[in-house]
Structures are given as structure tokens and as C-alpha cells.
Amino acid sequence: xxxxxxxxxxxxxxxxxxxxxxxxxxxxxxxxxxxxxxxxxxxxxxxxxxxxxxxxxxxxxxxxxxxxxxxxxxxxxxxxxxxxxxxxxxxxxxxxxxxxxxxxxxxxxxxxxxxxxxxxxxxxxxxxxxxxxxxxxxxxxxxxxxxxxxxxxxxxxxxxxxxxxxxxxxxxxxxxxxxxxxxxxxxxxxxxxxxxxxxxxxxxxxxxxxxxxxxxxxxxxxxxxxxxxxxxxxxxxxxxxxxxxxxxxxxxxxxxxxxxxxxxxxxxxxxxxxxxxxxxxxxxxxxxxxxxxxxxxxxxxxxxxxxxxxxxxxxxxxxxxxxxxxxxxxxxxxxxxxxxxxxxxxxxxxxxxxxxxxxxxxxxxxxxxxxxxxx
Amino acid sequence: xxxxxxxxxxxxxxxxxxxxxxxxxxxxxxxxxxxxxxxxxxxxxxxxxxxxxxxxxxxxxxxxxxxxxxxxxxxxxxxxxxxxxxxxxxxxxxxxxxxxxxxxxxxxxxxxxxxxxxxxxxxxxxxxxxxxxxxxxxxxxxxxxxxxxxxxxxxxxxxxxxxxxxxxxxxxxxxxxxxxxxxxxxxxxxxxxxxxxxxxxxxxxxxxxxxxxxxxxxxxxxxxxxxxxxxxxxxxxxxxxxxxxxxxxxxxxxxxxxxxxxxxxxxxxxxxxxxxxxxxxxxxxxxxxxxxxxxxxxxxxxxxxxxxxxxxxxxxxxxxxxxxxxxxxxxxxxxxxxxxxxxxxxxxxxxxxxxxxxxxxxxxxxxxxxxxxxxxxxxxxxxxxxxxxxxxx
Lengths: 375, 393
Ligand SMILES: Cc1cc2nc3c(=O)[nH]c(=O)nc-3n(C[C@H](O)[C@H](O)[C@H](O)COP(=O)(O)OP(=O)(O)OC[C@H]3O[C@@H](n4cnc5c(N)ncnc54)[C@H](O)[C@@H]3O)c2cc1C
Description:
By secondary structure, chain A is an alpha+beta fold. Chain A is 50% helix and 16% strand.
């Protein structure tokens, strides 16, 4: 499979590019922020996404979805990133769907997700940094379980209808095994969600589980074997976040290059200064390399390749590095105007930092590669 | 089974049978590299055997037409062949400026006679080529070259000096940029080919910081060059020169890719620094530097794949080789900086086994040229800025 978008994927890209740019440009996000919107995204827009079929992008056609892959999901996410559109697409249509796929839970939740009625949140992180640690416990009780513990950085956690929770049914916090994944409905007794507004004005919740009772049929996959759906969730989430980062970094770069072509100082366009040209060209190179890494990860995931996991970590780390450069250079090259709230470039910086942290930052993923390579 | 699967199976079997075991080990020194040419003496019988076997199938240049000594393979088949070679860590059977630089230019701009004559010899490794581009006063500003070619009816009389001519003293022929019109800078250049044994050609080696002497000053004193040896039209050599540079940059960018089989950087670091009780490199900052470097190196691996796929499909921006050259060479310099840091004093030893016969320090020094040769990093950034990002002049 060649490492570029095929014709169908390019058509999809054109469609989604126009759609997002029209319905959810940066001004849409700015308006939500200015209104201090408590949901964090537009449910109406999400409905429109559903009508176009995108909410079921990764769901098989036999289950009512579009039956497409991570490459296509990434095409959507890149445009979401480029326009900084607040959307539950990554958590719901990508990561949650990947976790539920092929399990008994799919039938229960997929129709709502496809219809644009069910929003999913991922309760994975327990510390301020994404780590492979699950300390939260799920004790057997009756014919179900009782969940106790806390999760953080749960995007849409305060509004989600479905919360996917990783909890421990055996072993200790840093064990790989002994994890069970649960699908917890939002109104479960003993669950409290405190939403915090983040730097990029999105909302993420801290969740407290105080002996939350769930039925045995809330288990996603098998008891004690949650690692499998959790890994599917993480690979999809990490790859998706990389694609969104690519959009954020690319959007910031385009704005900056555009600005270099119109801002004059010393009677000449600043884009003619070699000191800036070289930095812009370097930035372009980093973004191109990141783009290749993302597409590689998406293709390998879609092929079910053994090499996918490594490629996913490369993509997540590389996009974090390249996009961080893009937003930093973006502000610097805009000069003073880049520091104003009125101008959009600052929003890119904020969003990039949130996405860089989500599902593991560049250091976390570089470390994973090192461990896998035996050093 | 698709045709491609069949091709893979057959290729795998053929390689298993025909690639000698010695040719499946990493190259240790420059002597191990097969460059072909009239002066070539194989370092081992296996080296010659491998070259001959591959040349007979046209697989030294798998995607060239069969009529010119190539394998006539499709892009997909070529990719399969490279993958299968990488899988057994097969060495490149033939390294050659003819393959990576002149060949593509002749395929596009050469006459049928030039193709039949030169390409077949390149494919078999019979003639080794060198590149006569740079001059003392024309480096980055290559089009400012002064070496003159005077029109003498059926031939040109070439006079002038080239510099940094890699392997000029070992090459059989040169592809050379000459000035045929003094009134136009880029529009007065012609692209000619001639035998280095022609009367009036002399070379003088230049010693490098690596202790090797791979390149020369090259002098031309009334060298007679038949006009049939001019590629493309008179005064339009700059088109050929630029096209060839694109391929040169592509080749040099390949240096940014990790060599197949093992990872000398990681293996080296483990050997010198050791692992702690958690199985982590005992120097945490070195470990972090290597890990973050590996992110970029692996991402660049994907970029190389993408670039080749896009090139083959005609989707790549024509200036994209500049980006590949820039990124790949800067990356490779970074790799060797880390390799030296990981190797510690072992890597400093100029000739010992601990420094792989001095290959580590010499390569480290050699990689510093990656961002100079074939157009400096600064020149590549200029090209990206102007041609891809379309920033104002
Ligand atoms: C190992 C090696 C092998 C080589 N092999 C060959 C060969 O086989 N054949 C051949 O013909 N040549 C060869 N070269 C020559 C090579 O192409 C030139 O060295 C190169 O193009 C740079 O030219 P220069 O050395 O004259 O540097 P200069 O052009 O003098 O550059 C000096 C510095 O100024 C910078 N600079 C120059 N112009 C600009 C600009 N417009 N904007 C910003 N910065 C600028 C450069 O980037 C560089 O940092 C080789 C060089 C090396 C190192």
C-alpha cells in the first residue's frame, strides 16, 4: 500500500475539509469559549456529523457504520485539528469504538454512537502524566462489580453518556495483566464528575468512583483480560490524537506562512528575510516527516500489523515535537500580534499542548520505544 | 496468490541461492564497498560473484528498462526486491554515481545512442563515473562556473578547474558542467561526458579531516570532447544539472536511514554504558537523547517510504528532494554525534577493533560533509522556502 492518500480518501478529505471549515472554524470554538459553554462542544454539530455518517466511521457496515479505517478517521481528525473544532469525535467515534469493537458491548452502544446521541469519555489516566498504571479497583460484588478510585483528564467526562473505565480486578497498580475494562453509564450511583476548564478552553473532568456498582454485563471483553480492548483503545486514541495534532501544527504553519507573505517591515515582506525563511523551511520539513509517521501508523493499524504499536508511538511523539515547534514559531513570527487573544495563533499553541499531553507525551512514547528496543 | 506474491517468493529463493553469506554482513570499511569501474579489484571473490549475479539479472538497476541493462521491474516489484534484500541484510551489489546520478539524467535527456552505450556499462559496473560540478569560485553558486568549452566544429576544447571532485582519481569518466556561453549565467552551461583518460585531464587528491582522501582537484588543459558526448542541447545543460541534483539529493538523503540489521547506536551505547537493574541504559540523559533521536529517525524512515511512493506516482513536489536531503543529512550528523557520545573513548580510537577499525570516528567526521555535498543545508532551505512555501524573494 503506497504511503499517500488514495483517491477515495482524497475525496473524503475534500468533503470533510469543506464541512469543518464551514461549520466549525476557529471562530466556532472562540464563540463557545466566550459563552463559557458548559458542554464544551456543539451537540447540534455532532448531530450533523452523525447525519453524514462520520460518527460510525470505524463501525462495520453490518452494524450500521461506514466500515472505514484509521486512515479515514485521521482525515477527519486532521481537519478538526486544523480548525480547532471542539468535538467528541476522538473519544467517541475513534477510541471508544475501537475498545468496544468485537465485544458484547458493541451492540448496546454502537446505535447511539452512530445516531450522534451517545457521547463517550475515556477514564484512563490516574496521574497528571499518562502512565501505564491502573490502580483503581473493581471488586466483585453480587453478580457485578464495585468500582473505587479516581481518574483524571477525562475529556467530556462531565457530559458523556458512556464512560469507559480501566480498573483492576487482579494484581497491583503497574501490572500489565489483571485489568478489566468497563462501560459505565453516566448516571451510575457513586460517580461524581468535576469538570475543569483547560488551557485550550476545553473541558476535562476529574472522576471519583465511590463504590460505583455495575452489572457483570458492563464488562468490555473479558474479566481480567481488559488489556486487549484497552490496547485497542490506546492505539486508536494515540493515532487519532497524532492526526489531530498534525492538523493543529499544519494549521498554525499555514497561518504563519500566510502572515509572512503579507506583513511588511523595513519596507519589505518579512517572508523575504532569510533568517525566517530557513526556520519556516525547517518547520515544513518537521511537519512533513510527522505526516509520514502518522499515515504509517494508521496504515499499519488498519492492516492489523505487528509493527503498528511501534509506529503509533513514533507518530504520537513525532507529532508532539513537530507541532510544538510549529506553534512556537507561529507565535514568534507573528510578533506582538501573536500574543493577543484577538488573533487565532495563540489558540493553536494551547490546543497543541493539550493534545501533546493526551495519551502520553513525546517523552513517554520515546521511552516506550526504548524499552521495546531493549535499552 | 497475486503476481506480486509469486514475484516475492521467486525473488526470495533466488536471493537465498545467489547472495553469498559474506555479502550479508555489514560493510566494515570503504574497501568493502563495490564501486566497479576499470580500476576495480574486488576485495573478495564473493563481492565479484554478487555483482555479476545481480548485473546478469539487471538488478543493479532493477527499475531501468531491460534494453539498457536494467531489470525492467515495476515500482512495486522494485520495492519487493529491496525489501527481500533488506530482510537478508544483503549488501548493495554496486555503489555508483552512474546509477544514482547520471543514469536518471541520461534516461530523461540522453540520446538513444548515449543510453545504449553508457547505461548498460553503468548497470554492469564497468565504468565508474565522477561528477564535475563544483569549482573554486562556484560552490553554492554553482551556475557561476567558469570552466570553458570552446566550439571547434565536431568537438569542444575544455579548459578550467573543478574542485571537490569525489573519486576523480578512481573514476573512468566524468559528467561535467562547462560554459559554452559567457553572456548568460544559467543559460550558458552545457552538460558533457568525457573519458578521464583523455589527454589534458589531471587530478590531485585532497586529504579530508577523516584521514581519507576521496576527492580531488581536477584540471582540464585543452581537453578534446566530441560533441556527440554533449547531453541535451547546447546551453541547456542547467536543466540536466538540476534534474541530476534532484537525484543526488535523494541518494544523499538515504544516509539518514538507519542501516539494516541491528542498531549500531543502541548496541554501542549498551556495550559501553551498560544497562541498569531495570534494563535501562545506565546513563539516563544519553538514553533520553537516543530515544528522542530514534523517534525522528523512525519517522524519517516513514517519510522516505512516502517520498519514494509519491515520486513513483508523480505526486511529489519537484523540490521535495531538497527537504529529504536537508532532513536526512542533519539527522545522520546527529546519529554520529550520538554514536561518538555512546562510544566514549572507544569511539575515539583511530584504528582499533573497538572503533570498528576506525569506522566510527571516520564516519562521524565524514557525515559532517553530508550537509555540504550536493548543495548545503542552507541552499536546501532556500529552495524549500522559495519553491515549496513560495515565500517572497
Ligand atoms: C564530501 C564532499 C564531496 C563532494 N563531492 C563533489 C563532487 O563529486 N563533485 C562536485 O562537483 N562537487 C562535490 N562537492 C562539492 C559540494 O557540492 C560543495 O562543497 C557545496 O556545493 C558547497 O560549496 P562550497 O564548498 O563552495 O561552499 P560555499 O558555497 O562557499 O558556502 C560556504 C557557506 O556559505 C553558505 N551559503 C552560501 N550561499 C548561501 C546562500 N545563498 N544562502 C545561505 N547560505 C549560503 C553555505 O551554506 C556554507 O555554509 C563535494 C563536497 C563534499 C564536502
